[in-house]
Amino acid sequence: TFDSNPLTATLTAGPALWAASTWTYLFKVNVTALVSSGPGTYTLGGVDAFDVYNNGWELVVLYADASRQPHLVGLGEGMDLAQGSGAPPSGPGIKPVLFSFDPSPNPRSARLISAGGGASAGTNSSIFYQTGSGAPPTSDIYTTGVLLATDLLQSNDGPVWDTYEASITIPANATYLIVQERSDMPNPASL
Predict the structure, then answer these.
(1) 66 exposed, middle or buried (CB, 10 Å; 0-12, 13-18, 19+)?
(2) Whole-angstrom distance, CA of residue 27 vs CA of residue 44
(3) To the nearest whole number, what is the mean pLDDT of the chain?
(4) Shortest CA distance to 75 belongs to which of 55, 97, 102?
(5) 6 CB contacts (<8 Å, ≥6 apart)?
């Protein structure tokens, strides 16, 4: 339930095999009609405790502010699995997320907000980004991208749940931004 309103979730990704008989899923629900304008507090109910098997939830709110210039909002959603370079059996790996946009003669700023579950405190992870114009890369950007942060996923927002935020400068004439997370050795995060 969302503020005591019953919800019906839509399966967005999965099932994906994590281990022997453990499967992962990603569900999504549009709660626009249940959210009021202005600041508020919302309660999610009827779910198991957030632990290594139920990693969390995120409420994404988009709104218009007539006093500000128009902004492009890009949402990337999905479920990728990674635990180091060799697991799980349905992975491994986290796919790059591509955001495409029209070029501008001036540099711009992008605000990245990444939410994810599965990483325990003390595990290693990193996040990379790459900007450019023309045809974007279609493979991992770990060697061509810019390292944005390391060990960002540490169960900071609850058991095995994290939200990471950063600002990224988009250079003039760029037409894409790619973001990619990685589960790093020697103590890989279960992402």
Answers:
(1) exposed
(2) 14
(3) 84
(4) 97
(5) none
Phi-psi region of 170 (alpha: psi -120 to 50; beta: other; left: phi over 0): beta
Q: Is the pTM of this model over 0.85?
A: no
Q: What are the structure tokens assigned to 182, written together?
A: 């990685």
Q: Check: CB of residue 172 under 8 Å from CB of residue 104.
A: yes
Q: What is the pLDDT of residues 93-106, one digit of tens each?
A: 788 999 999 999 99
CB atoms within 10 A of CB 55: 20
Residue-wise pLDDT for 123-141, tens only, equals 888 999 999 999 999 999 9
Max Cα distance, the chain (Å):
53
Tokens representing residue 85 in the block: 């370079």
